[in-house]
C-alpha cells in the first residue's frame, strides 16, 4: 500500500466481497448436493435452475450448495431465500418444478405451496 487511495480501494473491495458472501440484497438459492441429493437428480436440478436464471435474465441470485439435510426421501431439495423473507424449502425439485419455482417464487414472490417441505 502506497497511498490512502490504495487503502480505500482495498476497503471497497473487501466490502463488496463481504456483501456477496452475506447475500446482501441478493436472492439466495441453496441446493442440496449430498450423495442422496445427487442420486435423486440434484445436478440436473442445478443445471435447470441456472438455465432458467439465464433465460429470464435474473442477475441478483447467489446459488450455493449444501450437504445432506436429512430429508433424503424429499431430494432434490432447494431453499429459496428472498431478502427479508423466511427460508422456503422445496422438495423433489426436477427441471419442470425448478421452472415454476423460479417464475412464481423468485420473480413473482409467490410461494409454490404444493412443493414446500416443512423442516
Describe this structure in words.
The structure is a single chain. α3 (42-55) packs across α4. The chain is of the alpha+beta class. It has a single domain, classed as Glutaredoxin (3-Layer(aba) Sandwich), CATH 3.40.30. β3 (78-81) and β4 (88-90) form a beta hairpin. It has helices spanning 4-22, 35-40, 42-55, 95-107; strands spanning 27-32, 61-66, 78-81, 88-90. The model has no long low-confidence stretch (mean pLDDT 87). Strands 2-1-3-4 form a four-stranded mixed sheet, covered by helices on one side.
Going across the major beta sheet, what is the strand order? 2-1-3-4
Helix-strand category: alpha+beta
CATH level 4 superfamily: Glutaredoxin
* Count of extended strands: 4
Query: Tell me about the biggest sheet?
Result: 4 strands, mixed
CATH class assignment: Alpha Beta
CATH fold annotation: Glutaredoxin
Number of helices: 4
Listing every helix as H and every strand as E from the N terminus to the C terminus, the arrangement reads HEHHEEEH
Strand content: 15-25%
Helix content: 40-55%
Task: Determine the mean pLDDT.
Answer: 87
- Gross geometry: elongated
User: Stretches where pLDDT falls below 50 for ≥5 residues?
Assistant: none
Integer count of domains: 1
Key descriptive features of the protein:
4 strands; 4 helices; Glutaredoxin; 119 residues; four-stranded mixed beta sheet
Amino acid at each position: 500500500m502506497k497511498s490512502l487511495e490504495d487503502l480505500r480501494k482495498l476497503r471497497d473491495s473487501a466490502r463488496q466481497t463481504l456483501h456477496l458472501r452475506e447475500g446482501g440484497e441478493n436472492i439466495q438459492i441453496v441446493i442440496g448436493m449430498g450423495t442422496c441429493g445427487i442420486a435423486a437428480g440434484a445436478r440436473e436440478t442445478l443445471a435447470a435452475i441456472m438455465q432458467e436464471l439465464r433465460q429470464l435474465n435474473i442477475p441478483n441470485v447467489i446459488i450455493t450448495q449444501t450437504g445432506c439435510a436429512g430429508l433424503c426421501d424429499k431430494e432434490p431439495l432447494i431453499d429459496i431465500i428472498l431478502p427479508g423473507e423466511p427460508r422456503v424449502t422445496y422438495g423433489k425439485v426436477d427441471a419442470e418444478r425448478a421452472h415454476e419455482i423460479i417464475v412464481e417464487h423468485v420473480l413473482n414472490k409467490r410461494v409454490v405451496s404444493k412443493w414446500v417441505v416443512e423442516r
